[in-house]
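Go through the following before class.
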Amino acid sequence: MNFKEIKTFGELKISGYKSLSIKDEIRKNLIEKISKKEPMFEGIVGYDKTVIPSIVNSLLAKHDIILLGLRGQAKTKIARMLPLLLDEFIPVVRGSEINDNPFHPVSKFAVDAINEKGDETEIEWISRDQRYSEKLATPDVNIADLIGDIDPIKAANQKLNYSHEGAIHFGIIPRTNRGVFVINELPDLQPRIQVGLLNIMQEKDIQIRGFNIRIPLDILMVFTANPEDYTNRGNIITPLKDRIDSQIITHYPKVLEDGIKITEAFSWTERDNKKKIVIPYYFREIIEMTAVQARMSEFVDQKSGVSARLTISSLENLISNAERRAIINNDEMIMPRMCDVLSIIPGITGKVELVFEGEQEGSIKVAKALVSKSVREIYRKYFPDPLMKKKKVNTEKEVKDIYGEIVEWFQYGGKISIKDDMTFKEYFGELKKVDGLEKFVKKYPQFYESEFELASLMEFVLDGLHQNSKIAKEEVESIVIYKDLVGSMFTQSGSEFGGFEDEYYR
């Protein structure tokens, strides 16, 4: 039977429809999903063995929950997926402001309607999306916003005294009755407003301005918070924390591949043009590793966290730089080059909060140092470590340095300049000048499928050698110059970071 065709309370009773509380409804649907082995929280990566089981346990226990974690850990996204565990539609008394259940009306409006009309009381069906509300906690939020207040104009127009329920203007929480209500950044809510939530959490009812009005609510309360908020911007008052049944700790991706999947899912990589986009995997790894390094850096405030938005913005900037070059040169393919990695810096500097030492060095220097460390780490996944000690074949002879021919070319005065808008022919031709470079990369055919990817790998090798102090690199506006390391020491202190990079990493 199509329940949505039912228009009156009498028809609803005859249909055999069973009404459940919000938490029982979620529990029922959750058990069904688990039994059928259906995926839950699709698109949430890296939480399958940690966060999601904790959420499922809490919902099975019919708990109100708080998601506690640093910025960019999908807390709000998870909360917004909870309505998927609700029934597709439920019946409410038509005209009710607080989604009254026809079987258990709680507002005066719904009670009067059912007392007056009985089985002829009109009902309507609301979707699961209409049963979700969310409020960002800010210091200016007041109790009237959340719970409600007496509306003097409404009271005057209807000639009601202020203690009459009909004079109430309901806040966002009562209007989410029989649904999921989320408060983001709970510690930002003033303590006196948090006190106003206690009755909702414990007694499941609301009171307005001390008048004898008690409306029992059927609601799942979900909160999100950053743990640092407990000391920096505000506190969650102890009685409220005690009434939140389950506290679930979120985290950043534990493996690089999970971070890459998240970045890929939320970044705009498929541009609205007919040009083919190819992104070698090591670029994704470099960007994700940059976030990992930032989360460990002594120059970054670890208490504030490093959001996944850093990697999303960085990847989009990287593609945009390659796209700009393709438009200038009328290329059919958009593919990043190592020189494009400089373009991700604006996606980093605004996403990390620095400690005092980091502020002293400057956000751009710190961002470049993070990228440098990332390139160094990822390079060793693809090619031999340039700093690895040479192995002796016997006591008298050493194996030849596999990078020797490349490094020697620079030592004898070789130098190449790469501009980020060069045509592919110019770019490839410049890289081919380096003795032994193309030959070296061709030893690893598994890493490339075309000349475009071969050329990009050749520059990757040069950048890897620079990050391991084998050759020097100079950045002048949009031009990258690779040259001999020793010769560059006469003009700068070891690297483009003026010694900062060496001090930071060694």
In short: Confidence is low (pLDDT under 50) at residues 493-506. The chain has three domains: 3-249, 256-382, 404-505. Residues 267 and 357 are 31 Å apart (CA to CA). The chain is about 40% helix and 15% strand.
